[in-house]
Amino acid sequence: MDTIASLFSFITTPVSWVIVQFHTMYGALFGPDTGWAWGLSIVSLVVLIRICLIPLFVKQIKSTRGMQALQPEMKKIQERYKNDKQRQSEEMMKLYKETGTNPLSSCLPILAQSPFFFALYHVLSSIASGKTVGVINDSLLASAREAHIFGAPLAAKFTDSAADMVKFDASLLDVRIITAIMIVLMSASQFYTQRQLMTKNVDLTVKTPFMQQQKMLMYIFPVMFAVMGINFPVGVLVYWLTTNVWTMGQQMYVIHGNPTPGSKAQAQLLERMQKSIVKHGKVRSRRERNVVKQIAAKGRERNEAERKFVRGLGMARLTVQPDGTVAKGEPEVEAEGGATADSGPKRQQPKRLTKAQRQSGIEPVATKTSLQKEEPEQADKPKTAGKPASGSARQAKSGQRKGQQRPKHPSKK
């Protein structure tokens, strides 16, 4: 870990400068040598970094949803070119380019804050070894070494021995209890964040390998952080626990206000919106207006939660408008397949013929749309004798074959 941290030594000076500035502010309140001053300085560093990473977080959300939507198409490409890996890669890149999706965008927040994480680790390791680093001089180094967070020194680790605790003037039991609690909290927050993403913010109507990968990561990441956490100093654990809590809160905010279409969170959001709109008779906020506008633009492509939302407004005699508002009027009735009632006249099916009609070759009579007079039509037809007509009618009813009939025997005439 020290070797990796040394690769990011170029950013050590800016990170140490930010920590010193926050320490100066908190030191005036709690005292310069207290754990509160140094601990809150690390927490403030995390908050500052995460605020700067908000645009990347928004890009990550869009990329993740784009990847979820592309999973069916990607699966088709993999099955079509399963024996040609080069063609498969070319088609994948073409699909990414056409849809404007970048698979690496979902990793941008983690990659962007990695240099700050290793730079902080390098700073705390230098403090533990008694070396000045960045803008931290000898006086600040001595202050940091004396700082304790709930009895655990800022630079102590879970794997440190009792001999290491002598130079920190701390108890090994206190250090291991505090670090163990922080490691458990760090892993639990990571697991909960991933779990709420899988259970609430995933389109349940599409089953893709992407969901299986996310489910595996939900269990792999907490275990990985628990194993790595025993080698982290207390200050780094404070950093990582703070960033996990920030990610969890940020994820909850996104799920509550801008969930993935087709997910459980979207159904809950539309249910809350429906109650609010029906109660007040109008759309009250810009966010709700944007949601209603998107639903109105989808038309027949609405998912089940969106159709339920439209039907709920229809029961209150409210209809969604293209501009994102609602208006009083006749409810929009949807058919079983999602088509609306005003999608056009239904096609009339021809009447089914009876067996006698099929055998006699009678053409089906078209359905009349208006009353027509039949008397002139009957008057133009030549009158025939009653017996042959009745005989042909009896033939049609009895189901006799068409064609020329055998002449009767002379004795029966």
UniProtKB/TrEMBL annotation:
Residues 399-413 have a biased composition (Basic residues). Keywords: Cell membrane, Chaperone, Membrane, Protein transport, Transmembrane, Transmembrane helix, Transport. Residues 371-383 have a biased composition (Basic and acidic residues). InterPro entries: YidC/ALB3/OXA1/COX18, YidC/Oxa/ALB_C, YidC_ALB_C. Residues 321-413 are annotated as: Disordered. The chain crosses the membrane at residues 7-29, 35-58, 173-192, 219-242. The keyword Transmembrane applies. It comes from the Bacteria. It is found in: Cell membrane; Membrane. Residues 38-254 form the Membrane insertase YidC/Oxa/ALB C-terminal domain. It is a multi-pass membrane protein. Interacts with the Sec translocase complex via SecD. Specifically interacts with transmembrane segments of nascent integral membrane proteins during membrane integration. Belongs to the OXA1/ALB3/YidC family. Type 1 subfamily. Required for the insertion and/or proper folding and/or complex formation of integral membrane proteins into the membrane. Involved in integration of membrane proteins that insert both dependently and independently of the Sec translocase complex, as well as at least some lipoproteins. Aids folding of multispanning membrane proteins. This is Membrane protein insertase YidC. The gene is yidC.
